[in-house]
Amino acid sequence: MNDENSIECSELSGKIIQTLRIYKDTGDGTEIQINLTDGTSFSYSVCQTPVAKAILYRGGAGTPQVLRDYEI
User: Fold this and answer.
1) How far apart are alpha carbons 20 and 13 in whole angstroms?
2) Fewer beta carbons within 10 Å, N or C terminal of the chain?
3) Residue 2 above 60 pLDDT?
């Protein structure tokens, strides 16, 4: 299945994994490297895009009143 919400890596089907390493996020994202027994490797990175959020509210007793939400 290949649609806009997924990626199919059919070239990996039937291959045997030799090692799988997960590298800690160093600012560029978390990387997963799969080394296969046929000498090929597959690398996958997960990166988060920064999101800026802000809110304008009126405080006081009880729940604050949200005047406006901002998101970039």
Assistant:
1) 16
2) N
3) no
| DSSP E strands, the chain | 17-23, 30-36, 41-46, 53-58, 65-71
| Cβ-based neighbour number of residue 23 at 10 Å | 13
| Tokens linked to 47 | 């990166």
Single-letter code of the amino acid located at 23: Y
36-58 pLDDT, tens per residue? 999 999 998 888 877 788 888 88
Q: Note whether 57 and 72 are within 8 A (CB).
A: no
Q: Identify the bridge partners of residue 68 per DSSP, sorted by sequence position.
A: 56
Q: Looking at residue 28, what is its pLDDT?
A: 75
- Which pTM was predicted? 0.59
Q: Which has the closest alpha carbon to 18: 3, 38, 1, 2?
A: 38
Could you give the C-alpha distances from 43 to 13, 23, 26, in angstroms and in order?
15, 11, 16
